[in-house]
Amino acid sequence: MSGFPYMNRQYLFDKYPNAVVTSDCFKLQDEVITQIDDGEILVRNHYLSLDPYMRGRMSKAKNYAAAQELNTVMQGGTVGEVVESKHPGFRAGETVLCTGGWQLYFRASPSTENNHIRKIDVSRIPMSVYLGAAGMPGITAWYGLNKILNPKPGETLVVSAASGAVGSVVGQLAKQKGCRVIGIAGGPEKCDYVVEILGFDDCIDYKAYPDTETLSHELKQLAPNGIDAYYENVGGYIMDAVLENLNPFARVAICGLIAGYDGRSIPINNPRAILVSRASITGFIVSDHLDIWPQALAELAEAVANGVLIFKESVSIGLESAPEAFLGLLQGHNFGKQLVKLV
Ligand SMILES: NC(=O)c1ccc[n+]([C@@H]2O[C@H](COP(=O)([O-])OP(=O)(O)OC[C@H]3O[C@@H](n4cnc5c(N)ncnc54)[C@H](OP(=O)(O)O)[C@@H]3O)[C@@H](O)[C@H]2O)c1
To answer: How much of the chain exceeds pLDDT 90, in percent?
Structure first.
């Protein structure tokens, strides 16, 4: 039986930020959904994922993906429940992962948006995890670790933004491979979590080492034999400090450079460190590698279900909380995967 009409609420992208994102970059709008067409489904979004990449799309600067257009619904990954279907492949009540955006309901055409709508099995793990450890961030960790860094047992690996959605998975998978793992994170609470709960060997609170020299010195204390692999999420002086401690032929995976997302300049100040170490530095974007998603997803979901991959979520409540939560994510206020609960 149909439940029309549905009262949708959504955030539009309203204004380009100057540098720091402000809440007036977003505009709230209501709409009434009275029907869907043949071939369409209507999804009630339960969780919205907030991700650093959204900042890059709120800009006209050159990027690997198209910019978000003004006056369109803010893009974003979601999980939710199909509430109406006029598509033969979907039934009301099924749970799906899609890019449903910053809104309560997502009206979608699965046949033309095939890659973005996947049915998910929520019998063993909560649906929200498909936006985190067993979703895009987890797959990003899996790809950078396995396909770029490829660390051997006994090697020393460093990962920045270590308590976050990507970094927490990187470190846990690297520990499972027999590496010595050092995280870098902001604040003692995050560092304690990384070591005591996630099982990293050490974690450096970069806020206690606010420049290249002091951070490099601390890294040298914790990795006296040097660093073999670095998973970069941040950039800036943190990257400079790690580069100074690389071993010959070390590998660096550039996953993200969040310290510069507001447009701040984050140069590499000592490129000689790359020459001296003969390091390989590789940038990557996970959506370029859709071929590995099924394998990575299956492994990550299994690991979460078996309790060998630990995850943490920061959940803000209600669609209206999304702008503040997003601003917080860009400033490190999140602790674990940042989500917005929509039901
Ligand atoms: N290449 C790809 O395909 C791909 C895919 C997904 C994500 N990423 C990148 O991966 C990185 C992590 O993403 P995530 O989703 O896992 O986010 P997250 O780590 O859960 O959250 C972002 C974290 O970045 C840290 N941070 C923010 N500003 C910082 C600064 N100026 N200096 C140092 N640290 C800062 C904060 O942690 P602290 O409190 O510890 O500072 C914050 O909690 C981001 O750079 C993102 O763009 C890349």
So the answer is: 95
Q: What domains can be seen in the chain, in order of their start residue?
A: 6-132+311-341 (3.90.180.10), 136-287 (3.40.50.720)
Best residue among 252, 258, 261, 264 to mutate for probing ligand 1's pocket (most ligand atoms within 8 Å of CB) is 258
Tokens (6 digits) for 95: 């749970």
pLDDT at 145 over 90: yes
Rounded to the nearest angstrom, the distance between the alpha carbon of 302 and the centre of ligand 1 is 24
Atom of ligand 1 nearest to the CA of 140: 5
Q: Which among 58, 147, 166, 232 is the best mutation to test ligand 1's pocket, defined by most ligand atoms within 8 Å of the CB? A: 166
Cβ-in-10-Å burial (0-12, 13-18, 19+) of 267 comes to: exposed
Beta bridge partners of 282: 253
Task: Tell which atom from ligand 1 comes closest to the C-alpha of 283.
Answer: 1
The predicted-structure confidence for 153-204, as pLDDT tens digits, reads as follows 999 999 999 999 999 999 999 999 999 999 999 999 999 999 999 999 999 9
Q: How many CB atoms lie within 10 A of CB 159?
A: 34
**Residue 2 — very low, low, confident or very high, per pLDDT cuts 50/70/90?**
confident
Say yes or no: CB of residue 148 within 6 Å of ligand 1.
Answer: no
From 233, 281, 334, mutation site for ligand 1 pocket: most ligand atoms within 8 A of C-beta: 233
Radius of gyration of the chain (CA): 21
CA 328 from centre of chain: 14
